[in-house]
């Protein structure tokens, strides 16, 4: 089947067309993502009202471009998929309304998809990974371990109890005067830094579960920074590098140790083709990827990190999730509602 997907739950407006036959794997015929970074830059974060308006303006255009790039028309599409939550409600509503309009006008079935399910199923789309697999979803807004049993059964093993790691990277970058987005800036600065100069806490590492916490770490960086500023009157490039390296090393330590625990729970299910998968913008971080690879090697599991364009927010993952779910459930109807919260 050929599915047109829409995504508008945060600050990317996206449309994509995916072809799926059966089982694992799909072909992305087109994927269009229009970011809104410029619109929110002056405000230091995503402004929900501005985001919703921009989605409403850009969705039609994204759909047109996705069809054009795939050299298809709406008549060739078998189903319409849309992120129905969780996310910023105005944006999710824009997408749901657009998808309902397309479904009503064309008579094609409509599927509301959970955004997190979209991320979690991406390794099926790109790498034909077999169920069950372990997924670490790690981005600016999410951080959780999911045991993926099927296209509609996800078991949450744990996750952050406060900030997501990407959010912590962004906030720490601001604290030490590095540019946004903070993740790449910190990774770059950390190359020349001494990760051992500042002793930073590794929260919740003493607890045996898979939960994590990153907000205390951010506060610890703030204190370390203030101490340096009080002593020297400002931060040198080396101070920035050392703080960046210390912070990044701590996030890696916490993520890796908790992944080890999640992996132990997963391996107890005796999967026939064990795989550790990662998705989300933070998966771009080389140190984090290496750490995760180490854990998968320890367990002789495959390590799967989909290409970054499919790891970050996109609509191909939404179209693919709907395609796989279509054999497990009925389509939604025009009463489909947008959900700001929607646990998997
Ligand atoms: O998945 P994503 O594109 O968007 C949402 O979270 O919605 O993730 C963006 C996050 C940002 O917080 C950014 O700082 C972080 O991913 N990020 C990184 C790196 N590249 C992006 N974090 C650490 N290291 C990186 N290289
Ligand atoms: Zn996302």
UniProtKB/TrEMBL annotation:
GO terms of molecular function: iron ion binding; tRNA N(6)-L-threonylcarbamoyladenine synthase activity
Amino acids binding substrate: 137-141, 170, 183, 187, 285
Main location: cytoplasm
Cofactor: Fe(2+)
Enzyme Commission number(s) of this protein: 2.3.1.234
Compartment annotation: Cytoplasm
Pfam families, sorted: TsaD
Sequence ranges assigned to domain Gcp-like in this UniProt record: 28-320
Swiss-Prot/TrEMBL keywords: Acyltransferase, Cytoplasm, Iron, Metal-binding, Transferase, tRNA processing
Co-factor binding details: Binds 1 Fe(2+) ion per subunit.
A cellular component term, taken from the record's GO annotations: cytoplasm
Gene3D superfamilies linked to this entry: 3.30.420.40
Similarity comment: Belongs to the KAE1 / TsaD family.
Function as written in the Swiss-Prot or TrEMBL entry: Required for the formation of a threonylcarbamoyl group on adenosine at position 37 (t(6)A37) in tRNAs that read codons beginning with adenine. Is involved in the transfer of the threonylcarbamoyl moiety of threonylcarbamoyl-AMP (TC-AMP) to the N6 group of A37, together with TsaE and TsaB. TsaD likely plays a direct catalytic role in this reaction.
Family matches, as PANTHER family: TRNA N6-ADENOSINE THREONYLCARBAMOYLTRANSFERASE, TRNA N6-ADENOSINE THREONYLCARBAMOYLTRANSFERASE, MITOCHONDRIAL
Protein name: tRNA N6-adenosine threonylcarbamoyltransferase
Organism: Sulfitobacter marinus
Lineage of origin: Bacteria, Pseudomonadati, Pseudomonadota, Alphaproteobacteria, Rhodobacterales
Gene that this sequence comes from: tsaD
């Amino acid at each position: 089947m050929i599915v047109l997907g829409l995504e508008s739950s945060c600050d990317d407006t996206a449309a994509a067309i995916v072809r799926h036959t059966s089982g694992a794997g799909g072909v992305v015929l087109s994927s269009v993502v229009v970011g809104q970074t410029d619109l929110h830059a002056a405000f230091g974060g995503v402004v929900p009202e501005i985001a919703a308006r921009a989605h409403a303006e850009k969705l039609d255009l994204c759909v047109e471009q996705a069809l054009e790039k795939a050299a298809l028309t709406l008549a060739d599409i078998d189903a319409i998929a849309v992120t129905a939550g969780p996310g910023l409600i105005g944006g999710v509503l824009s997408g749901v309304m657009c998808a309902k309009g397309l479904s009503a006008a064309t008579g094609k079935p409509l599927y509301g998809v959970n955004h997190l399910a979209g991320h979690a199923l991406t390794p099926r789309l790109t790498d034909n990974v077999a169920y069950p697999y372990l997924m670490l979803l790690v981005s600016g807004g999410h951080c959780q371990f999911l045991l993926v049993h099927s296209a509609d059964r996800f078991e949450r093993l744990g996750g952050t109890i406060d900030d997501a790691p990407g959010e912590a990277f962004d906030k720490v970058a601001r604290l030490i005067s590095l540019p946004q987005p903070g993740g790449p800036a910190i990774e770059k600065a950390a190359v020349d830094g001494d990760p051992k100069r500042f002793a930073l806490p590794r929260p919740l590492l003493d607890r045996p579960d898979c939960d994590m916490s990153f907000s205390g770490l951010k506060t610890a960086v703030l204190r370390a920074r203030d101490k340096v500023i009080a002593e020297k009157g400002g931060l040198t490039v080396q101070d920035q590098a050392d703080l960046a390296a210390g912070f990044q090393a701590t996030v890696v330590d916490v993520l890796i140790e908790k992944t080890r625990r999640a992996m132990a729970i997963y391996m107890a299910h005796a999967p026939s083709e064990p795989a550790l998968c990662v998705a989300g913008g933070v998966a771009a971080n080389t140190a984090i990827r290496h750490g995760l690879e180490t854990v998968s090697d320890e367990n002789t599991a495959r390590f799967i990190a989909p290409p970054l364009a499919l790891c970050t927010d996109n609509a191909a993952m939404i179209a693919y999730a709907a395609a796989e779910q279509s054999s497990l459930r009925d389509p939604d109807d025009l009463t489909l509602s947008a959900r700001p919260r929607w646990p998997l």
